[in-house]
Design brief:
Radius of gyration: 13 Å
Number of domains: 1
Structural class: alpha+beta
Number of strands: 3
Mean pLDDT: 83
Shape: globular
Number of helices: 3
Helix content: 25-40%
Length: 90
């Protein structure tokens, strides 16, 4: 699996990520040996480490529920964060 495939799968589950002011990026963390999702919206940033088995199941088309829940919670958390000084126009 590569970065582009994982980003594409996440955007299939949440089409508004990457379009409505929510920036998406993923990287493989060699130290933790797992993928990390980076979401950014209006200057607010959050990261989340994904479970390898959840990613594998989703990428193989077996089940994307766990991955969808993880990304959904991350998206909700970044949207609910208080604005940063930069995003307030200061």
């Amino acid at each position: 699996m590569d970065k582009k495939e994982l980003c594409k799968k996440i955007q299939e589950i949440y089409p508004d990520i990457g379009q409505c002011g929510i920036n998406l990026d993923v990287d493989y963390d060699d130290e933790k040996k797992t993928w990390v999702v980076h979401l950014e919206r209006k200057g607010k940033k959050l990261d989340h480490y994904l479970d390898e088995e959840d990613i594998k199941a989703c990428m193989e088309g077996r089940q994307c529920v766990a991955l969808g829940i993880q990304i959904g919670e991350l998206k909700k958390d970044v949207e609910e964060m208080p604005p940063t000084r930069q995003s307030e126009g200061v």
